[in-house]
Design brief:
With about 170 residues, the protein is α+β, with helices and mostly antiparallel strands. The protein has seven helices and nine strands. Strands 1, 2, 3, 4, 5, 6, 7, 8 and 9 form a nine-stranded mixed β-sheet that branches. It is globular, with a radius of gyration of 15 Å.
Length: about 170
């Protein structure tokens, strides 16, 4: 059982490295407490942003070009399960993030599951230094993270889908 789990983990990590992203040195830990603003303009605690189970948290900045490549690729993957399990945090004031979301975030991918990190509280609490950052969550537990430029976001498809689609 341990051997099978290790093999799945090794395959997952290998897929992420091939994608050109850097695995962030993180400790598996609970999601830290912070507050962001939801699409409707209401303050939302970090404990309330995820759908539960295994999900993906993506942190981006509006000026990030590789972030747009990632969202375009995700839209092309056409994975309903991945789309439902994806939450996006965007650095910036709510009005600016709302405009960014309308212009650049594919509705099929994130719908209204985006949040503005107006104060930078999420960025500080999660200790993020770059963009994009993709974080694999299990309920409110951080399991893994990728940070940096994604050379080929399409190479991430298998890894991200596997994370959210398999128990």
């Amino acid at each position: 059982m341990v051997h099978a789990t290790w093999n799945k983990g090794a395959a997952f990590v290998a897929a992420l490295i091939v994608a050109g992203a850097t695995l962030a040195a993180i400790e598996q830990r609970p999601m830290p407490a912070f507050e962001v603003v939801n699409a409707a303009g209401a303050a939302t605690s970090s404990a309330a942003i995820g759908p539960g189970g295994k999900w993906i948290l993506i942190y981006v900045t509006p000026e990030c070009r590789s972030c747009q490549r990632l969202f375009t690729a995700m839209e092309e993957w056409n994975s309903a399960q991945l789309n439902v399990a994806t939450v996006v945090l965007v650095q910036g004031e709510h009005a600016a993030v709302q405009a960014y979301a309308a212009e650049r975030l594919p509705a099929a991918v994130v719908g209204s599951r985006w949040y503005a990190d107006a104060s930078g509280a999420a960025r500080r609490a999660l200790a993020l230094t770059g963009s994009p950052v993709i974080i694999g969550m299990r309920d409110q537990q951080i399991s893994w993270a990728l940070a940096g430029v994604l050379n080929d976001p399409a190479a991430l498809e298998s890894a991200l889908r596997t994370w959210v689609e398999r128990p």
